[in-house]
């Protein structure tokens, strides 16, 4: 529930979006003329009218932020309002109702877009007429036609006609607009986390803009969406290898998929087909996978005492959403990023393999899972003759049997003790490098 200064109030179906954009408040007014002037700045010139017979003002408010090419906002009028745009606009708009509904009027027909069910595509061309219900709060995504034209050439290889792709006013079911809705939320959440667009790292802004433009062009119908010609042939193997080299040579997130395609002289679609043929994954997935590995290594090597943070490292490697980064990191490495940041850098934590047994749990301090290597059958158990402990910590098992099954298990610089438990090897090599293996 958000309370206006004059005491008027209404419930919001999605307070998370409002909280994310709270620092970007543009107006809050009961004057319809003021609201109309502000809406022109964010979307396009047009008229706002209250329903005939309505008395009093409106409870209008808006919060929005933009990068220049893409923008996102939270808007509501607090009264039944008709939006009447007579001419063209420089923007493609997507209205995503979070509560209430929008009634789009076209050719004598009305199509209803309800919260949680539909989105409204507001094309740049031609008049647009729609009615917002009094309880309708809306997540708005705005994309410039100039950015769409540039992105369409990169994405589809379409001939440079000097015009953006053409869209139609339409109401789409939410499942068809899922990619666009997710992109809008990611923009809002990222802007909210930084509190000021100017504080968002430039590389991250480029990635967000490209992601949003790709979601719009791939997720919505337009006249350049039909596959045709060389743009939809797979990029050659040498282009895929060069893209891999460019990504692996990064010391921070530099390229997005569109920039890789432009650098290599191919379209995004051709690069996607080339990656699928060569690696059975998309270039976007490859970028995220490699950067997740780099971020993980940096977390292990960093020292929080010297100011290193999970958010800073994630942002440097192009992960805008801290929660999703944490989930991806835990899925790959079995621990949260904060645990990796606190772990002494004695070696990488092996990614979790689906179906593999749970890693050995430890009590006390977390020293990270042991690295598992292929077995060297028939060898003896050896130690390198030195008792070397990592940061004065022991790694102990607590109430578990420790077994190796076809693997060579090494500990790197840790004192490994078992407390009254069985330690079994099944014909495998158990080595400690610089640390004793003790039972007691």
UniProtKB/TrEMBL annotation:
Domain HTH araC/xylS-type: from-to ranges: 241-343
Organism of derivation: Streptomyces griseoaurantiacus M045
Entries under PANTHER family matching the protein: HTH-TYPE DNA-BINDING TRANSCRIPTIONAL ACTIVATOR EUTR, HTH-TYPE TRANSCRIPTIONAL ACTIVATOR RHAS-RELATED
Keywords assigned by UniProt, alphabetized: DNA-binding, Transcription, Transcription regulation
Protein name (Swiss-Prot/TrEMBL): Transcriptional regulator
Pfam family, one: HTH_18
GO MF terms held by the record: DNA-binding transcription factor activity; sequence-specific DNA binding
InterPro entries: AraC-bd_2, AraC_XylS_family_regulators, Homeodomain-like_sf, HTH_AraC
Biased composition (Basic and acidic residues): 377-406
SUPFAM superfamilies per UniProt: Homeodomain-like
Region (Disordered): 339-406
């Amino acid at each position: 529930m958000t309370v206006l200064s004059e005491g008027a109030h209404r419930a919001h179906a999605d307070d998370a979006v409002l909280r994310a954009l709270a620092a970007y408040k543009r107006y809050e007014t009961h004057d319809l003329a003021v609201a109309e002037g502000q809406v022109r700045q964010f979307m396009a010139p047009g008229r706002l009218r209250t329903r005939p017979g309505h008395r009093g003002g409106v409870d209008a408010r808006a919060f929005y932020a933009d990068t220049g090419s893409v923008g996102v906002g939270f808007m509501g009028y607090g009264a039944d309002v008709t939006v009447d745009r007579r001419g063209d606009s420089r923007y493609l708009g997507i209205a995503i109702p979070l509560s209430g509904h929008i009634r789009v009027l076209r050719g004598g027909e009305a199509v209803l877009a309800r919260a949680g069910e539909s989105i409204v595509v507001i094309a740049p061309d031609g008049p647009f007429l729609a009615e917002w219900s009094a309880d309708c709060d809306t997540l708005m995504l705005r994309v410039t036609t100039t950015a769409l034209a540039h992105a369409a050439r990169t994405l589809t290889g379409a001939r440079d006609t000097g015009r953006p792709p053409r869209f139609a006013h339409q109401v789409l079911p939410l499942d068809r607009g899922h990619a666009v809705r997710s992109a809008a939320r990611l923009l809002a959440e990222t802007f909210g986390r930084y509190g000021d667009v100017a504080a968002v790292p430039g590389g991250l802004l480029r990635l967000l803009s490209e992601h949003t433009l790709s979601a719009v062009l791939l997720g919505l119908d337009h006249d350049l969406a039909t596959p045709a010609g060389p743009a939809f042939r797979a990029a050659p193997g040498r282009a895929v290898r060069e893209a891999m080299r460019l990504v692996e040579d990064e010391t921070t997130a530099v390229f997005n998929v569109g920039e890789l395609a432009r650098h290599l002289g191919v379209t995004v679609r051709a690069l996607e087909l080339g990656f699928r043929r060569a690696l059975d994954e998309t270039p976007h997935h490859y970028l995220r996978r490699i950067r997740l590995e780099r971020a993980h290594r940096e977390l292990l090597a960093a020292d929080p005492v010297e100011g290193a943070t999970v958010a800073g490292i994630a942002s440097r490697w192009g992960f805008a959403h801290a929660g999703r980064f944490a989930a991806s990191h835990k899925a790959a490495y079995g621990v949260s990023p904060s645990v990796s940041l606190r772990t002494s850098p004695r070696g990488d934590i092996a990614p979790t393999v689906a179906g593999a047994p749970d890693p050995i749990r430890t009590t006390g301090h977390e020293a990270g899972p042991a690295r598992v290597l292929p077995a060297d059958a028939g060898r003896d158990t050896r130690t390198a003759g030195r008792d070397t402990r990592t940061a004065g910590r022991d790694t102990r098992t607590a109430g578990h049997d420790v077994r190796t099954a076809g693997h060579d298990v090494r500990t790197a610089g840790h004192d490994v003790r078992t407390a009254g438990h069985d330690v079994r090897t099944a014909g495998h090599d158990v080595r400690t490098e610089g640390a004793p293996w003790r039972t007691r």
